[in-house]
Amino acid sequence: MTEVMDWKQKLASAIRSQFMRPRSFAGWLVGWEMALRSSNRKRNVWAVELLGVEPTDRVLEIGFGPGIAIRELSRRAPQGLVCGVEHSEVMVRQARRRNRAAVRAGRVDLRCSSAEHLPAFEEPFDKFLTVNNMGMWREPGERLVEFRTLMRPRGRIAIVSQPRCPGATAETTVAAGHGIAARLIEAGFIRIRSEMLALKPPVVCVIGEVS
Fold first, then answer.
1. Which of 45, 99, 110, 208 could join 189 in a cystine, given CB atoms 3.0 to 4.6 angstroms apart?
2. Is residue 102 a contact partner of residue 75, using CB atoms and an 8 Å limit?
3. What angle, rounded to 10 degrees, do the helices at 140-149 and 170-186 form?
């Protein structure tokens, strides 16, 4: 019995690690599963709508996964630029393929990197998005301060979280939202507000602005 439990725990750990950083063929399958899952699509489209992207905006997404939100962002900023940073090479390739037309047109720029090691960008951004990625950052408070310096005045940031811990409830989501809001305030963002999406568990999107 103990050996069976150890095997199950190892399998669960391996699956979780693939969702955090997809790798190899298994990671490619994980990416397609994320892209096809209706709740994931709904969550990403909802977050993009809340961000209020304008046609000429420059937008940055951290941790874009299979590129679902990237596609929605590029549709809303046809005269702008959508950039993305993702630490999984497998997801970068998949997202580029999903957004190939916009990539070829120079309207989407996707790079393999991380929140801790952002590439150099030529101009600041109007909008900033991250979905279920903040929990992977080292020193998230420092990251948010850095992100604010990359944004234009009156720029808007949206941080989305859908808790995935065992037994997560609406209360878990609310607590996550409070924590994100506190970090945004500490990092110097203003006009903080939160929105909820009724999935299981619920999703919270915390929005802040640059003065």
1. 208
2. no
3. 60
How far, in Å, CA of 166 to CA of 61, rounded? 27
Q: CA-CA distance, 133 to 89, in Å (whole number)? A: 16
Inter-residue contact 208 to 156 (CB < 8 Å): yes
Alpha helices, DSSP H only, in the chain? Answer: 2-20, 24-36, 38-51, 68-76, 89-98, 100-104, 140-149, 170-186
Q: Where are the domains of the chain?
A: 39-209
| Three-class SS of 41-71 | HHHHHHHHHHHCCCCCCEEEEECCCCCHHHH
- Long-range interactions of 92-97: CB distance < 8 A, separation 24+: 94/28, 94/31, 94/32, 94/35, 94/66, 94/67, 95/64, 95/65, 95/66, 95/67, 95/70, 96/67
What's CA 16's distance to the chain center, in Å?
A: 17
Say yes or no: domain 39-209 is CATH 3.40.50.150: yes
Q: Is 181 helix (H, G, I), strand (E, B) or coil?
A: helix
| Choice among 22-26, 64-68, 112-116, 152-156 with the minimum mean pLDDT | 22-26
* DSSP string computed for 122-141: SS-EEEEEEES-GGG-SSHH
Q: What is the pTM of this model?
A: 0.83
Q: How far apart are CA 191 and CA 174, in angstroms?
A: 18
